[in-house]
UniProtKB/TrEMBL annotation:
GO terms for molecular function: aminopeptidase activity. It is an enzyme of class 3 (hydrolase). Residues 379-436 form the Purple acid phosphatase C-terminal domain. Keywords: Aminopeptidase, Glycoprotein, Hydrolase, Protease, Signal, Zinc. It comes from the Eukaryota. Its EC number is 3.1.3.2. Belongs to the metallophosphoesterase superfamily. Purple acid phosphatase family. It catalyses: a phosphate monoester + H2O = an alcohol + phosphate. Residues 1-21 form the signal peptide. This is Purple acid phosphatase. Transmembrane segments: none annotated. Its cofactor is Fe cation; Zn(2+).
Length: 458
């Protein structure tokens, strides 16, 4: 009798877990409109001095973390394109020479945009670097990652859809003050939101660059392009998509055999990170399709156990906003993600937070009606983190009932931390802006799909 009761209870719990959704947060945030900070705000101030470098930022400059791309803008004249750099414990300065470019957008003309690639750095080393040689110099620093390897711990910050509102400033401040320090930011798209202004006012690309310099001059941000970064406006004579984005934010796409800066991959510590473009062609035989098909075959989980994908538009989304916009991409690529045992997929676009269970919909058949996602221990966890604080505000309309694949959702601004411990475990936490710097609104212990493939999503 006892055995029968426990057997029945087990079946009941299984049914409940499979058929119902997870948690919709009871936290209620005041939903006021998000406002861009005024142009005279302190966070937008240009540095003092003639031709002083501004909008300084860095990203990974090769495929394994021994390179850095340093970018900055000068306003008065091109100035020097030289970067001086040196180890923290050395007085010997080395020199790297970069390039300078400009672009025009409608009636706007950019400053002089510099990009300099520094290669063959030592792993796990603090470097200082100086830009603005010959005029007003500015000095910053960064720390290179440890060598690529299976048991290398590393911590990533996660931010998306940031913009430059008061909420954006709060998000960035909370990330900077989080006691679990991110060493690199994985950014899932939508940077400046300049396209929300008449004629895509590109001055707002400049203010955004000055705003985030306080973080991404010191640690790499790994870039993903979003829809607000397209800036496609043929009605004002601007038919070239992604023009401001690609001029300002270079990435090492050629190192991974990509033909476009909009999709590429890098290795960093124990993670293999694949960046995809939701707003480029994804169908069969397109360049992105062919590249991703080949790229997934190159991943060696013995070397980089954590396989992470970044994109802008989420595939699984239980908000009313942008619902099913990523469906075409999902239908094509999801079987590859499951076969490759991708650990997690991070997206933005929906201005709220949501974490899924491990589910897939690869068996979808339009002729037999099988169109419901199912539990799949080989599938990624999908996390939407388009909650940086942008001018469009929060997504607050949720579909009801909460779908069974949704584990946690909340309409708040915030950031996340992914703390990789070793080849088998990573600790993830999401932090809403309204709490203390160390408070976690949602957290999750990831088990690696390759080295520890159990379904932890319940």
């Amino acid at each position: 009798m006892g055995f029968s009761w426990y057997y029945f209870l087990g079946i009941l719990l299984c049914i409940i877990n499979v058929c119902r959704g997870g948690i919709t947060s009871s936290y209620v945030r005041n939903v006021e409109s998000s406002e861009d900070m005024p142009l005279d705000s302190d966070v937008f101030k240009a540095p003092h001095g003639y031709n002083a470098p501004q909008q300084v930022h860095i990203t990974q400059g090769d495929d394994v973390g021994k390179g850095v791309i340093v970018s900055w803008v000068t306003v008065n004249e091109p100035g020097s394109n030289i970067v001086l750099y040196w180890k923290a414990n050395s007085k010997i300065k080395q020199k790297a020479k970069g390039t300078v470019t400009t672009y025009k957008y409608y009636t706007y003309t950019s400053g002089y945009i510099h990009h300099c690639s520094i290669q063959n750095l030592k792993y796990n080393t603090k470097y200082y670097y100086m830009v603005g040689i010959g005029h007003t110099t500015r000095t910053f620093w960064f720390v290179t990652p440890p060598p690529v390897g299976p048991n290398v711990p590393y911590t990533f910050g996660l931010i998306g859809d940031l913009g430059q509102t008061y909420d954006s400033n709060m998000t960035l401040t909370h990330y900077e003050m989080n006691p679990t320090k991110g060493q690199t930011v994985l950014f899932v798209g939508d940077l400046s939101y300049a396209d929300k202004y008449p004629n895509h006012d590109n001055n707002r690309w400049d203010t955004w660059g000055r705003f985030v310099e306080r973080s991404n001059a010191y640690q790499p941000w790994i870039w993903t392009a979003g829809n607000h970064d397209v800036d496609f406006a043929p009605e004002i004579g601007e038919p070239e998509p992604f023009k401001p984005y690609t001029h300002r934010y270079p990435v090492p796409y050629k190192a991974s055999g990509s033909t476009s800066p909009l999709w590429y991959s890098i290795k960093r510590a124990s993670a293999y990170i694949i960046v995809l473009s939701t707003y480029s062609a994804t169908t069969k035989y397109t360049p992105q399709y062919k590249w991703l098909e080949a790229e997934l075959k190159k991943v060696n989980r013995e070397e980089t156990p954590w396989l992470i994908v970044l994109m802008h538009c989420p595939w699984y989304n239980s908000y009313d906003y942008h619902y099913m916009e990523g469906e075409t991409m999902r239908v094509i690529y999801e079987p590859w993600f499951v076969k490759s045992k991708v650990d997690m997929v991070f997206a933005g676009h929906v201005h709220a937070y949501e974490r899924s269970k491990r589910i897939s919909n690869v068996d979808y058949k339009i002729i037999n009606g099988e169109c419901t996602p199912v539990n799949n221990p080989s599938a990624p966890v999908y996390i939407t983190i388009g909650d940086g604080g942008n001018i469009e505000g929060l997504a607050t309309k949720l579909t009801e009932p909460q779908p069974m694949y949704s584990a946690y959702r909340e309409s708040s601004f915030g950031h996340a931390i992914l703390d990789i411990k070793n080849r088998t475990h990573a600790y993830y936490s999401w932090h809403r802006n309204q709490d203390g710097f160390s408070a976690k609104a949602d957290s999750f212990l990831f088990f690696n799909r390759y080295w520890h493939p159990v379904d932890e999503s319940y």
